[in-house]
Amino acid sequence: MTAAKALQDVTVLDLSHLLQGPFATQLLADMGANVIKVERPGQGDLFRTLTFNNRWVGGTESPNFLAWNRNKRSLALDLKAPEAKEILYKIAETADVVVQNFRPGVLERLGFGYADFAKVNPRIIYCSGSGYGDSGPYLARPGQDMLIQGLTGIAAATGRGDGPPVPVGSGFSDQVGAMNMVYGILSALYWRERSGEGQEIKVDLLSAMLAHQGQEMLMAMNFQQDFVRPKSGIGHPGMDAPFGVYPTLDGWVTVAMSPFKRFVGVLGDDSLLVYDNPKDLFDKRDEIWGKLAALTKGWTTAELMQALLAVDIWCGEVKTHLQAEQDPQVKHIGAIASYEHPTAGTVKVVAPAVKMSKTPAEIERPAPRIGEHSREILGEFGFDTATVDGWVAKGSVAEAK
Q1: Which of 68, 104, 125, 319 is close enough to 22 for a disulfide, judged by CB 3.0 to 4.6 Å?
Q2: Which band of pLDDT confidence, cut at 50, 70 and 90, is reported for residue 401?
Q3: Has the keyword Transferase been applied to this entry (predicted)?
Q4: Measured between alpha carbons, how far is 104 from 138 in angstroms, rounded to an integer?
Q5: Nearest Cα to 273, choosing from 241, 307, 235?
Q6: DSSP state for residue 271 in the 8-state scheme
Q7: What are the two backbone dihedrals, phi and then psi, of residue 105, each rounded to the nearest 5 degrees?
């Protein structure tokens, strides 16, 4: 028997694409929400055509799409077709949430803005995601993840001081934006339980990335001084030695906030204790890192980890994605899962990250094919077979082939 789900009575009309919106709706779907993903007939979500390393899961499916669209059903619908309003307004009558991340103004011009849905259902919660908000000098700019990382300081604060700014190696801005979407939606659902009122939510990547660098922004603004990236492997431009990434004989080890004297004691060179004062540990951190790194290179990763952990140094191995998959703690907590896809076969995925005792998140559906559930969804909302047949023949609605 399938366990109860925390959001099993919530219906989400998902008009989003690429990463920010789809990740947000996948998080809701993992908790049981009925997510109806609306896609373009024939083309679908743009992420279906994008991939990494020119590799396709099962030879046909985009890993980018599969990563963010499990537990959803796909309705393939041409938003410009006259039937689209009839269909989406009908769904909106009983839906709880609409999620979209088109450029500002696009859906409003098509008749699918917050005001349009609120007329149909005043309790609707309408969440929009954008790059920079819905007005201002950057309105026409593309709101892509790496561009936002560059604008908000995180790229400038990452990497070595003698090299270029370094973006984070994942779609960090989009994923932070997705978390803000979920945070806003769940807050709005709770408010609606008390007030009976729906509302509009606006999330933008620029604000999200600034908010998630709260301590760095506070320091820079209040002291009117930007962080300066060190030339060594210090892991954060505001931290002093020994914070950083250190080479070993066979890899790398990270060391976080830890007593310098204790770290030096493990490495066995007391001459370095001359640096053990707050001013030198920051001002001379590159010099110190070089001397420490020369010593850590004489240890294997396993040997150094064992010695550091024995004296309560905060440390960890640096692992690749494949090494992370095989990590014993990752295995222990069940962080990796899989599902069966009709064309891609067995797909390995990251499991839902939030564990709930009474309403657990589960992977119950693979990422859908374009229009795979068009007939099923339209039937649920009262459209008869003949009507749907006509729409399919016309091309305004599509189904999976």
Answers
A1: 68
A2: confident
A3: yes
A4: 11
A5: 241
A6: G
A7: 95, -20
Q: Of 212, 236, 332, 341, which is the active-site residue?
A: 236
pLDDT score at 234 = 77
Strand duo 72-77 + 34-39: pairing: parallel
In angstroms, the CA 202 to CA 214 distance is 20
State the amino acid at position 186 in one-letter form: L
73 token code pair: 């059903």
Q: What is the largest CA-CA distance in the chain?
A: 85
Domain that holds residue 181: 11-212+356-398
CA separation, residue 302 to residues 147, 244, 248 (Å): 38, 18, 9
Asked whether residue 116 is domain-assigned, the answer is: yes
- What are the backbone angles phi and psi of residue 298, rounded to the nearest 5°? -85, 0
Task: Name the token pair of 57.
Answer: 């899961």
Is the pLDDT at 1 greater than 60? The verdict is no
Q: How much of the chain exceeds pLDDT 90, in percent?
A: 96
Give the Cα separation of 328 and 387 in Å (integer).
Answer: 54
Mean pLDDT value of segment 356-385: 96
Helix axes 285-296, 260-267, angle to 10 degrees: 30
How many domains is the chain partitioned into structurally?
1
- Which pLDDT belongs to residue 232? 87
Residue 373 annotated in active site: no
Structure tokens belonging to residue 67: 């990563």
What is the domain-level CATH number for residue 62? 3.40.50.10540
> Is residue 331 in some structural domain?
no
> What one-character-per-residue DSSP string does 125-136 give?
EEEEEESS-SSS
DSSP string, 322-356: HHHHT-HHHHHTT-EEEEEETTTEEEEEEPPS---
Q: What are residue 4's phi and psi, to 5 degrees?
A: -60, 150
Q: Which two tokens stand for residue 162?
A: 């003698």
In the numeric block, the tokens 């370094």 are attached to 166
